[in-house]
Specification:
single chain; about 100 residues; alpha+beta; Alpha-Beta Plaits; three-stranded antiparallel β-sheet; 4 helices; 3 strands; about 45% helix; transmembrane helix
């Protein structure tokens, strides 16, 4: 196994991969998460089984919140990632999600 003899090939392949990654970063940029862009992270727990993700999206749609990422975190909980919201909007979100279900 002659690894040292092929070092120029390995350097070339590594260099090409680094250049490709730089091109991707320049063209498409980084998609920054809520930690860097600001926003709200709301975890909602349900006493009983949580509703389906589509049902949660339908309940939040009338509030015009923009893009909302819904992630199931537990059997009975979901995490909502969305733009920064004030306290009154936060209460509207909880009210819309409650809608006949008991929240934890």
């Amino acid at each position: 196994m002659n690894i040292i003899g092929y070092r120029k090939i390995y350097y070339t392949v590594s260099g090409i991969l680094v250049l490709i990654s730089w091109v991707f970063l320049i063209v498409w940029g980084l998609k920054l998460g809520i930690e860097f862009t600001g926003g709200s992270l709301i975890e909602v727990g349900y006493k009983d089984a949580r509703p389906a993700i589509e049902e949660i999206k339908q309940k939040l749609e009338p509030l015009n919140l923009g893009t909302v990422n819904i992630t199931p975190t537990d059997q009975n909980a979901v995490m909502l990632r969305l733009k920064d919201v004030d306290e009154s909007t936060h209460q509207q979100i909880l009210g819309a999600l409650k809608d006949g279900k008991e929240l934890d």
